[in-house]
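cron nightly-structures :: item 1 of 1
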Amino acid sequence: MKKKPLPWTPNDIPDLSNQTVIVTGANSGLGLESARMLSSHGATVVMACRDLNKGKAAMEDIRGDHPEAKLELMALDLADLASVRQFTDTFKQHYDRLDILINNAGVMAPPLQHTKDGFEMQFGTNHLGHFALTGLLLETLEAAEAPRVVVVSSLAHRMGNLYFDNLNGKKGYQRWKFYGQSKLANLMFSLELDRRLRGGNSSIQVMAAHPGYAATNLQRGIPGHKLFNAVTAQSQEKGALPSVFAATSELAQSGHYYGPNGFMEFWGVPAEAHIRRLARNEKVASRLWEVSAQLTGVSYL
């Protein structure tokens, strides 16, 4: 069913000249397009990338369109908690506030692998890395006038479950189920973070977003992805619009989830997205939070 689009287009992105933004995974795909759009409206965008060579190429790509873009490249490997801490320490040495954090980076459906800290790669990178990053940047976000956190989830959250007795995949692993788990965790994290911040009278707004089905590098491991993308996918630029909407629009509301408005939310323009019942379960979300804090060693509130 097609949803009612929000009255917003990229032309409504405001002047962001005084805004500092972090985009994780900004070297390609949705992160690159988000960085491009935000920097084209004056934001200082910190491109947080694991591969600095790809990050440099992405910076040159953006500056080819916007020579005056204010960009900074910083190393961040979300699959390594030491790298997450190094990144946040370095950021705080250079910036006294953070206006927008877009938790975008991710991996999709690899063979069973583990992060440097021993976590299953998808849960460790997509969820735990961003959980730690956000917590370590919380005070820097609080220092901004109207801070926002955007967590990028996926339609795959609908097929996800949380395997608390097998988070590292060592009792059995199916790559798509574990991708769904990581994306469900992303969405539940955003909703739980919003609840906790509201309870603490924080000024930070937290939104989640998903790109629908967008043609990005994430699909490169899927057999036949090039043909399937050509037939069904929207561009990565359009896929980035829900995240950019959530990061910049006065219409975006904390605790909400945004995605494309078209058929099954595969494509279209930003609209309210469907949140499955499990993602709203506060008891499960609280357990996920406590487990995440224990695994990462990062506490929030």
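cron nightly-structures :: done
Strands lie at 20-24, 44-49, 70-75, 100-103, 148-152, 205-209, 257-260, 270-272.
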